[in-house]
Amino acid sequence: MSGLKSLSMSVVRALGIMLLSMPQSHRGEAAEAIGQRWPASQQISMSQVDHSTFDRLLKKYVDTKGMVNYEAWKASQTDRRALQNYLKLLSRANPRATAPKQARLAFWINAYNAVTLEGIMQVYPTTSIRNHTAKVFGYNIWDDLPLNVGGKNYSLNQIEHEILRKMNEPRIHFAIVCASIGCPKLRNEAYTTEKVDAQLTANAIDFFQQKKHFQIKPTQRTVHLSSILDWFATDFGSTQSEQLHYIAKFAPEASRSFLITPNVTVKYLDYNWGLNHQPSR
Length: 281
Hints:
- By secondary structure, the chain is mainly α.
- It has two domains: 29-196, no CATH class; 214-268, no CATH class.
- Helix content is 42%, strand content 6%.
- The strands form two sheets. Strands 3-4-5 form a three-stranded mixed β-sheet. It has a two-stranded antiparallel ribbon with strand order 1-2.
- Strand 3 and strand 4 (222-225) form a beta hairpin.
- Residues 14-21 and 24-30 have low confidence and may be disordered.
- Residues 100-207 form the DUF547 domain.
């Protein structure tokens, strides 16, 4: 019994340490949504949402490699408030209001990326988002930092799996960014209704230009792909052949014929969960 009591005390002590190390805003039992609740009379269609503030912030704090200057962004009260005000604007959208697919794609991709950026800055400095994704108990940024949209809360997991993945647009996997080096590059511009299709195609082409995401070894009949293509394989096709035919459209031209030949072996690259931050100067 004394051993069991000692073990119990160790667990309690560990829980206490974890609780103390958790950001103050995440110690409550219920997830507190970001954004704000808008009365139905003030809600708007997703096609009416202005993403220009987010565009300005991305241009200021994200470089051409998709790395984020979290340190400077967090230090600027004005721009921290600007991001939070943008999230409040996203809250004004009514998901049930009629809007074209392009507007809904732009809205939810921006929402996912903006919430992720806000979540990282709440815990920054940190080395990885995985430091804040507890599996059993404690704060999980993917579940416990919901955005209120049109009076309903949506977690990052819900935005990704219950909304974006159901829009039958695999290129979203080259656009939503979980603050990690292994993710696709975070664009330093916001997605818009008018540009989202071209932006998604550009993302996909850029993704397969990167050796951290795509490598072929013709003599070994092998292609090495980002783990994203493993985790979400069925979004790209029901069979390996369909999946390779899909990504061949975006792969470097010299690789395309190899990808669509029979009997190609697929292997997956290790995923880098390191934070996509610009190093301090």
